Amino acid sequence: MGVNRRRPSVIRVEIGELVLDGFRADPERVSAAFERELARLVRLHGVPLAANGAVTADTLTGLGPLPPDLSARRLGQELARAVHEGLSGHGEVTG
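Request: output the structure for the sequence above.
Response:
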């Protein structure tokens, strides 16, 4: 028998708070870039941890050090990649 590889029809990611200490980037632009990049990654790769149903993660880690002068777009992209890695089963996820 084959394994059901159907992707969930709806994926919702809720982030309670994102603190960017030491960065000069505009938080609204960081947020917009984050949302665009995370949506792109989910469209391309899905969310493997959610393949069998809902998943909740309290904490995602694995984002390495970033220079404080990153553009808002680049900072948002890097944050989205770290979140997607955690939701893909890579890195540390607690919950």
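The chain has two helices and two strands.
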